[in-house]
Amino acid sequence: MLSRLTRPRAVAVCALPVVALLATAAFAPLPFSLTQPGMTADVLGENKGDPVITISGAPTRDTTGQLRMTTIEATNPDTRIRLGDVLDAWFATDQAIMPRDAVYPSGQSVKEIEKHNTEQMRESQDAATEAALNYLDLSGKDIKVTLKLADVGGPSAGLLFTLGIIDKLNGDGSGSDLTGGRTIAGTGTIDAAGEVGAVGGVALKTQAARRDGATVFLVPKDECSDAKSELPKGLRLIPVTTLKGAVNALTALESGKGSVPSC
After folding, report:
1. Does the first or last residue of the chain, that is N or C, have fewer Cβ atoms within 10 Å of its Cβ?
2. What CATH code is carried by the domain that includes residue 180?
3. Exposed, middle or buried: residue 206 (CB in 10 Å: 0-12, 13-18, 19+)?
């Protein structure tokens, strides 16, 4: 036998599962990481007392200006992110929510993730060195490049490492600095052939760059829209797809001759 519920009671009964779901979501851990602008480091200078780039087997130049690689900071892989954290970050301009698997490889322990990131950094440094020497037509048999950057993992500093090596060895090729004395920041992976690849968190990295004095930011071209989404005032975006394109853009910016691409 069926009985008919009054409208208020029906609404109340239907609302109970929704309330239960919201309560569960509020306290259940979610598969996200909270991210924010991280540290930056001038690859032409020192980091924690050690030169970032050390070159032997070839004469190097004294440089002016800065080439700052950028990072994001993320919550630890085992941090429990809840709905309240997500909602807070959603309305913040200096925080972002990213899928945990986009920040950390899934199914790995903290130690395994740290090992993975360290390996990615080592591979990125090797590719950056090879790309720079290839670009300058120099032999890796005669020139040794050591890159050292404490407490940073992943491959996204590759482009800035490469530009730093080129600036120290050759500058703009005409006796001037690639930076033109500016503070230039950026991000992007690189391979030995000089192809620049996309990375994550560029909107946060632009904020870190401007905070630390950069006026120009090199961004992988495919990520222009992300970089523009929270672009700080006073920061100029230059999209790049190759090492050659990045060098040409910086040379044009420094000399005032030629075109400088924009997002």
Report:
1. N
2. 3.30.230.10
3. buried
Give the total number of structural domains in the chain.
1
- CB count within 10 Å of CB 41 equals 24
Domain that includes residue 175, residue range:
37-79+109-255
The pTM of the whole model exceeds 0.70: yes
Between CA 227 and CA 204 the distance in angstroms is 8
Of 68, 70, 67, 43, residue with least CA distance to 205: 70
The burial class, CB within 10 Å (0-12 / 13-18 / 19+), for 256 is exposed
CA atoms of 41 and 52, how far apart (whole Å): 9
| Cβ-based burial of 123 (10 A; exposed 0-12, middle 13-18, buried ≥19) | middle
What is the pairing mode between strands 66-74 and 96-99? unpaired
Q: Is residue 99 part of a domain?
A: no
Instruction: Read off the pLDDT of residues 186-222 as tens digits, 9 standing for 90 and up.
Output: 999 999 999 999 998 999 999 999 999 999 999 999 9
Token representation of residue 79: 């941090």
